[in-house]
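Sanity check. The docking grid for NAI depends on where the pocket ends up, so I'm generating a full predicted complex first rather than guessing from homology. Inputs follow.
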Amino acid sequence: MSFDTISVIGLGYIGLPTAAAFASRQKHVVGVDVNQRAVDTINRGEIHIIEPDLARLVKSAVDDGYLRAVTRPEAADAFLIAVPTPFKDGHEPDLTYVRAAALSLAPILKPGDLVILESTSPVGTTEQMALWLADARPDLHFPQTAGEQADINIAYCPERVLPGKIVSELIKNDRVIGGMTPRCSARASELYRLFLEGECVITGSRTAEMCKLTENSFRDVNIAFANELSLICAEQGINVWELIRLANRHPRVNILQPGPGVGGHCIAVDPWFIVAQNPQQARLIRTARLVNDDKPAWVVEQVKSAVAECLFETNKRAGEVIIACFGLAFKPDIDDLRESPAVSIVQRIVSWHQGTTLVVEPNVRQLPEALAGHAALTALEDALNRADVLVMLVDHRQFKALPPSAIRQKWLVDTRGVWR
Ligand SMILES: NC(=O)C1=CN([C@@H]2O[C@H](COP(=O)(O)OP(=O)(O)OC[C@H]3O[C@@H](n4cnc5c(N)ncnc54)[C@H](O)[C@@H]3O)[C@@H](O)[C@H]2O)C=CC1
Ligand SMILES: CC(=O)N[C@@H]1[C@@H](OP(=O)(O)OP(=O)(O)OC[C@H]2O[C@@H](n3ccc(=O)[nH]c3=O)[C@H](O)[C@@H]2O)O[C@H](C(=O)O)[C@@H](O)[C@@H]1O
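Predicted complex below; grid placement will be based on this.
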């Protein structure tokens, strides 16, 4: 059975590119989002997020009539759920968005439909989703209760695209397909093959859920190693970036880069899902999270030292020192501020600094609420001219292109090794 209409629930960084990818294969796609502004923007052929190449893809999908956005789900042959999965207080996973999205589909499901959960989720969420749906639609058979005879096919297929390269990785990356039954996996693979150039690798839903969490925890643990090295090197008076460059000349060593901390709503979040379910076993994964989460506080101490040096050498009063922070996004060349260590660092700086704090972030038009009124969003040139202390938080291309002369005679805190 072919997929005439495909529906994507949640039109954010994952759902919108996925919807546009199906539409680019001349499939009729109904995108669903509870955010009316996002729906209106997409229906104008525009996008509400920044991601390279996405604007062009969405525009042609909408102009050609293959993609339209709505606020309430409509009947389709396949549904992909890509809604947020944040954590609550105490780092427990928050599945309320997944539950709401699944329940919004329940009334329109019909035998033969395929429901895929793409949101990063703790182990067992797909089975839980099947139970929620089964409760809402006792007239239909779901895989857990009916095995291969189910009316509805359900699978967990995690997304592993890298922000900044989503459009190409969406097509090229291999995809893990975790069907609740072999038939569910087969249907999900058929669906993704509509646009996928990478391979569909089949497993069960629980392994697929754990696979996604494992990938991001692996990266988090390795970044924590680099961040721990940066603290050790600061004590020892060693340049950590030179050290890592040298160590990486070993054929079996590949250390990642230290930074101001780990941000984004994935790597800074997903490892906690493993910890929450396995508090006794997940010791290394938890420690890595703590090491990375502690890094912003350490950076702020470095900024305080730089300000103290500036005061000592210039005879300025504390209220006269101007600090400029470069970057707010959670990583280079994107506009996403979620869980950004840079935002947390600037928040901490403005809470003690008596003078002006400037922020340069070329990818946003206004400061987030937490900083509005406490710091000033400033043009790059202006910040370089006015500031005494420069704090490099995100290695955006505009900052990497600065000539050494632009930062001469300033007190520097460089969390990204750009000004080394
Ligand atoms: N952003 C990324 O790079 C990656 C994200 N993921 C995972 O994908 C999932 C989605 O992430 P993003 O796309 O980044 O989130 P996002 O926040 O950009 O987009 C989610 C969208 O879902 C909408 N939404 C929330 N509840 C809804 C509902 N009941 N019905 C319809 N729409 C609803 C929101 O309004 C929002 O537009 C998360 O689980 C995330 O961990 C996985 C891999 C990469
Ligand atoms: C295993 C892996 O590479 N996961 C990817 C990751 O995307 P994300 O953009 O969050 O990852 P990232 O580029 O490592 O950035 C995360 C954070 O880590 C920091 N970071 C990254 C690499 C490094 O050497 N040092 C470092 O400090 C970044 O600055 C950023 O604050 O998480 C995505 C997700 O799950 O959302 C996932 O789809 C992506 O493939």
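Relevant for the grid: The chain has a mean pLDDT of 96.
Also worth noting: Residues 9-15, 32-35, 38, 82-85, 97, 100-101, 104, 118-120, 159, 161, 163, 265-266 surround NAI (ligand 1) (CB under 6 Å).
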